Amino acid sequence: MSNRPGPPGGGGVVIVPPPGTGRGRPIMAEPGVETRTRSSVITARAAASFDPLGRSVATARAFVRDTLQGWGYSDVVDDAVVLTSELVTNAVVHAGTSADVLCLRSEDGVRVEVADRYPEREVPIQGAGRAIANLDSENGRGLLLCAALASRWGVEYTPTHKTVWFQLDLPQRPVGTRSAGPVLPTAMLPVAEERVRVAVAQIDSTGTISAWNEDAERLFGYAADQVVGKPLTDLAAWPQTPGIGTGIAEALRLSRWEGSYGIRGLDGRVLPVYASHLRVRDADGEPSTVCLLVRDDERAVLQTPQRAPDSGAEHRSTDPFEVFIGSPAPDDLDGLLQRTVERARDMLDGDAAFLLLATDDETELEVRATTGLPSARQRFARVPVEAGAGRYGSARMPAVHEDLTAVPGAVPLLNSTGMRSVVTVPLKVEGRLTGSLGVAAESAGRYSNEEALRLQFAADRIALAVESARLGELERLRRGSLSFLVEASDLLAGTLDRDQTLALMAQMTVPTLATWCAVYTIADQSSEPYLSYVLHEDEERIDGLKALLSKIDPPDPVPTPGARVWNAPAEAAQRAALLASKRELGLGSTPPVSSGIGTTLATAAAVGGETVVLPLVARNRVIGMLTLGKPSDDHFRQEILELAEDLSRRAALALDNSRLYSERVAISQSLQRSLLPPELPLIEGVEVEVIYRAAGEGNEVGGDFYDLFPIRDGAYGFAIGDVCGTGPEAAAVTGLARHALRLLAREGFTGPAVLERLNAAILDEGARSRFLTLLYGELWPQEDGSAILKVVCAGHPLPLRLRQDGTVEPAAEPQPLLGVMEDLELYEQMVTLDPGDVLLCVTDGVTERREGTRMLGDDGLSDVLTTCTGLTAGAVAARVLRAVERFAAEPASDDMAILAMRVPEPHNS
């Protein structure tokens, strides 16, 4: 989707070079732009105009994306595209005028300006705080996004134009990342104010400064006699490297360390520095640390280059630091993981190594990096952690298998690889399983407990870096997914032509999500699936792929949500390749036959990987299937499958619904988001996780809601409720309940008093009132690590308490629901959560999940919760959601809200 033509007639793209480049007079340059940016010098600009047409929004997005990628600003492309989409939509659709888009590049970021010719159109703001006046209105949402995503933003007026602009600053590179730039002429190199200075400080075993050189005096302003004898931590402005759990005091005890922190100078200013620490001992055997420090922007002077291992060396290191520490981590997670397995293999002199990362609910492990194994076949494959066939039972503890032939299937990843012995160790962060690292050998009996301890020691050192990189990658994927889905939804909703919709579906998935794609459609309930569209990233293979798929039965139209594996294409391709090879041997190698065999083998390789099928479901009916494939035994990443599932839902709506219905869906989604709290507060000493799912492909405004908010210092209120019905009437009661709860709780009313007043307010709505089941409580974290709760359960499913020993019991008693009777006599009950205890609150969409005549019920939910002992609140909520989704094949027909609160166990130092 990145190769698009320029803007259509009515606008042109103009790239203006920086001043002084000698390329002639700038075209369409606006005088004073440099002044308007206020803080940065503009080095390049690009401008375009777009007609007041719906398709101009997609063209404007493409213009901004291509411009920023051409400037090398890929870090901010996704946010810029989302904001531009909203602002141009406001101009060409809502204001009904043409839009002028101007991109300005500076040294520290990019500024995008969107101007329309409707200056008298009111911007929906109010008050000194410039808050959006009406969150439910259609206009003004672009300004909400600007406030959420942009570093700075504003609105400017002229007699003929209104301009909305936003500034996106380039993110700071995390500590330990590598970057490289082009070779620049000497004249363009940055100018140093003085010679590069390297401060040298010697720190004794107590952390006290014992030596301080002249460059250190010049950098920080302290003379040697002012700092010698003082702890280095007295000068450190930051207690630890940002994003890293290792503090400076701990870093001084490490044998080798590199990273960033701040030193407060004599003038009180904080100077960011990059430091390289080396621990040595003197002739008397006393340890000390030599610290080399430079300005952070001069880190390349000290940064350790990445060195390839010496393949000819016979030396086997006994120090895990030599293997894993000593050079900064790669920018990307895959690079870090691949380097980890290669060095783990070398450290234990193994023949193969592998690293698996745990899923969010810790029930499965996903293969992310291997060496010495057929990685193409294994990458992104998943295995269970605790139960099921082919389980990976040794994930949570170090394990040594002396001979895998004696215990077949103990490590499923190594089946049919020729490996005989293996040692595996867990990667844990704060006691939570985050992955598993293993080293294997082709001979039996190669490893003992000593190797397991060495590998575990190394894994403990790398676990935090791996988890930090994984979370960073996940955040980047989520931001990219948001931009992708915004663009996909706009394209699919912009046409009612069936063939064009099918082509758009395939073109959006290839090659972004898969190597090839096939779309099957179903005309009605009695019709068989029909192969409607096929696309491959290599156009020469489309015909062969279409012929192959036409010869096999289509996948079954099962409405089960999520992706399911379909093996038929790979099996058919293997049979075709085998048959072609036999014909080649029997007929000789004439050019036409060889050419046909080459095409057959190429087609077999193209579909030889994993193939998945996602149902296209609209109005609770399967209207088709979206099939995605990978080549050469590749596997799909779970995040890609989740993104494809989101795309398949949108594609199904585009095939089955009208433009009016699509617009109604978008409005309903926006309204629903406004009825839910924007974010949850961080509660010290209590883990909180919320999962919300609205039923139906249209995501109509649901009656379920939740909230968690501070009442006063040390006290928090929480609620989860279900309004009878859906639509605007239910939404009105939802909004009334959530805001009334916050207001009354902060006025000091007790739980029963809050609910009694809310009940009266609901009854005052008259014919618009709705029944409401509500669980409301107040939470007080205690200094001893426990938490006290007072809860009132008004007609709602009872909250469940999970103790550390695995027992589950209701945490409240049922009381009358709201919106029925005028006089209610409610009472609150006190619950104490001990460290390790979990309180689970759900709506009836969870307990009333049905499969035919079966229902999950309270007992089924209790059984699921008993398996969650020791899990974090996030893992508990994810496991409950997975159990609900897998209970029935049909999509959920009711909204679901899950609120999990857990008091964590104290960490032993």
Task: Identify the notable features of this structure and list them briefly.
909 residues, alpha+beta, Heat Shock Protein 90, Beta-Lactamase, 5 domains, 6-stranded antiparallel β-sheet, 22 helices, 31% helix, disordered N terminus, phosphatase activity, PPM-type_phosphatase-like_dom, hydrolase, Regulatory protein
Q: Please give the domain count.
A: 5
Cα-atom Rg, whole angstroms? 31 Å
Mean pLDDT: 77
Number of strands: 36
Distance between the termini: 51 Å
Model regions low in confidence, pLDDT < 50 over at least 5 residues? 1-39, 123-138, 175-182, 239-245, 306-331, 387-391, 587-595
- Helical content band: 25-40%
In one word, what is the shape?
Answer: globular
- Biggest sheet layout: 6 strands, antiparallel
Report what the structure shows:
The protein is an alpha+beta fold and 909 residues long. It has five domains: 42-119 and 141-169, Histidine kinase-like ATPase, C-terminal domain (Heat Shock Protein 90, 2-Layer Sandwich), CATH 3.30.565; 199-301, 2-Layer Sandwich (Beta-Lactamase); 325-474, Beta-Lactamase (2-Layer Sandwich); 495-583 and 599-666, 2-Layer Sandwich (Beta-Lactamase); 676-903, PPM-type phosphatase domain (Phosphatase 2c, domain 1). It has 22 helices and 36 strands. Strands 1-2-3-4-8-7 form a six-stranded antiparallel sheet, covered by helices on one side. A six-stranded antiparallel sheet has the order 16-15-14-19-18-17. A five-stranded antiparallel sheet has the order 10-9-13-12-11. Strand 18 and strand 19 (432-441) form a beta hairpin. Helix 3 (77-94) runs antiparallel to helix 4 and helix 18 (727-746) runs antiparallel to helix 19 (751-763).
